[in-house]
Specification:
Helices cover 27% and strands 16% of the residues. The chain is an alpha+beta fold and 295 residues long. Strands 1-7-4-9-3-2 form a 6-stranded antiparallel β-sheet, with helices on one face. The protein has a 3-stranded antiparallel β-sheet with strand order 6-5-8, with no helix packed on it.
Length: 295
Amino acid sequence: MAERDAASYAAELNERGYCIVRGAVTGGLVETLRGELQPRMDVTPMCDGDFYGRRTKRVGGLLKRAPHASDFIAHRLVLDIVDAILAPHCDRWMLNLTQAIEIHPGQFEQFPHRDQDLWRGNPGKAEYLVNVMWPFTDYTRENGATLVWPGSHRVDPGAQIPDGMPDFDSAIAAEMAPGDVLLFLGSTLHGGGANRTNAVRSGMIVSYCLGWLLPYENPWLTYPPEIARHFSPELAALVGYQQHRPNLGNVDGRCPSLLLRGELQEFGAAADNLTAEQSAGLAAYVGAMTQQAAA
């Protein structure tokens, strides 16, 4: 098991742009999850696109495909680390992506990129997401371990990669064993490594983003109410069945979690969902207006 607390890992993540937790779960649990996903991976074709990788397979929506995916996606230490990074910038954060990935022999290095570029925000002012990579097989430099550029989140995080061959020599390969987990920031330059072996490199990427962003994976279509109602309340909130104050993500002015309990009334009243600061300011305003009306 991991020997450090969430605050220690979060500090390293902020300083270096990435960190690795050794022994976060057992190898047996990893093998169980891989076994649940493998039949789907076997019939999935290679990706169609140079960014995803034409010698790479990707499968999303893992919470509906593998019973044990939630053990990783809702891993307590990982969630605490993510909270330390994202909570200062939002009211609530949510699941952005779940994706099983196989890098097959012959796949060259992925184009280096920053995942925060999914959104047209103001780079360098806030972290938009945290990525979490769980290996199913050993990750080595030879078989395509994720490449990470240390400190790249602090060197003009809004910069684009110039034309020409990237400087792969300045990247580190996140070498890990099943049970370890890599976390890196959305502002950290990274990419899948090249697989120069004869075996498949297999793993899972999970990411979490600020709750006021549109996530990479459409959570409400991926996990509609008939699926999400079987999740725990925490997991359902993580995939989007919650409101982000003030009032974002509502259904007829109410929290979408009511859909999972059959409590969303056809003619229900819209209800405020505000931050404590907003509620206090509104209460003062309403109090003053009430006194004025009574005078």
